[in-house]
Design goal:
single chain, UDP-N-acetylmuramoyl-L-alanine:D-glutamate ligase, alpha/beta
Length: 328
């Protein structure tokens, strides 16, 4: 594991994934036969940390596990990855686990038992202040208790870090105040529509986002979080970027779209997490260049991840992305 100070801190969830391939998702009350069962590390936070680490970002993951067999497996997963981690270990909570179905089109359906993730405490986060002191980027999500997310954001603010929030999955206690604390938001189309409905009282059809004009999407993003860069990931349709006019991150335009990169998709599990982790690493690698360069690399990394089964284990390494798509 790295002994140097981390540049990216990921606060989030670790889950043990249990994955079945199915021809199609079962309907209500239907039993279907699965095939090709596999188990491996996952969780939005751990996925993003592995993605960032494999893109050569100096990464520290902070999360919670139980004092059980899956918790021991989590620590082994991190050691195998040479990923630096700080774990809050609970005796009275299980390590989180998931059931994942992946159909023949590569789409997934996921059920999560949050376990220890839900009880990650703000006190434990604050106790990691030494790691935050020299770090540059905080990356977090909503798959843990919000108190931990809020504590991490406050600590990052004190240390002048860039705060990246992936608002997923939607949390019933999420506030507009916390949302607007982020410098960079990375919702997918469903999450963006939910955020607009909740905080703007605007009814947005997630499936219609792709066909919306850039000006309409840009206006919604500016209302949702006026000072942040908002990146809406649109699955197979690429992504949309909306900047505050005063902070374009060296981009020529305040809003634009990037198409998805070509891929032979077999499993989309963790692709959004891959994008977020790769984006954090790329923002550091190319911090003197326009933001679009980091976006393009994150797009390519996420596309390559869909050609592999699994979550954390499917995250590509930097040299693999370059070998596939060429030098940046």
């Amino acid at each position: 594991m790295s002994t140097t100070a981390p540049q990216v801190i990921v606060v989030g969830s670790y889950n043990r994934d249990h994955v079945w391939r199915v021809h199609r998702f079962p309907q209500a009350g239907e039993t279907r036969l699965g095939r090709n069962f596999a188990t491996g590390p996952g969780g939005k936070g751990f996925n993003q940390a592995v993605a960032c680490h494999r893109q050569d970002g100096n990464t520290l993951f902070i999360g919670a596990i139980g004092s059980d067999a899956l918790g021991a497996q989590a620590q082994e997963d991190a050691r195998d990855e040479s990923l630096s981690c700080r774990w809050q270990v609970f005796d009275d909570q299980p390590t989180a686990s998931t059931a994942v179905w992946v159909n023949d089109q590569g789409n997934n359906c996921i059920v999560v038992n949050p376990g220890a993730n839900a009880t990650l405490t703000s006190d434990f986060i604050r106790a990691q202040c030494d790691a935050f002191a020299d770090a540059r980027i905080l990356l977090t999500q909503l798959e843990t208790g919000l108190a931990a997310v809020e504590a991490a954001v406050r600590l990052a603010r004190e240390c002048n870090m860039t705060c990246v929030l992936n608002p997923a999955p939607m949390h019933s206690d999420l506030t507009l105040t916390l949302l607007r604390e982020a410098d960079l938001l990375t919702p997918n189309e469903t999450e963006f529509a939910q955020l607009c409905g909740r905080f703007l009282d605007v009814d947005v059809d997630a499936n219609a986002l792709v066909s919306m004009s850039d000006s309409t999407l840009h206006a919604l993003a500016r209302k949702l979080s006026p000072n942040a860069t908002v990146v809406i990931t649109l699955g197979a349709n690429g992504c949309f970027v909306s900047h505050d006019e005063r902070e374009r991150r060296k981009d020529a335009a305040s809003c634009y779209r990037l198409p998805t990169e070509p891929a032979k998709t077999i499993d989309t599990t963790g692709a959004g997490d891959c994008f977020c982790g790769a984006l954090a690493a790329a923002m550091l690698r190319w911090e003197a260049r326009p933001f679009v360069d980091a976006m393009r690399h994150a797009n390519r990394t996420a596309a390559l991840s869909t050609e592999r089964n699994g979550a954390a284990g499917a995250m590509p390494r930097y040299d693999e992305v370059i070998a596939r798509f060429g030098p940046h």
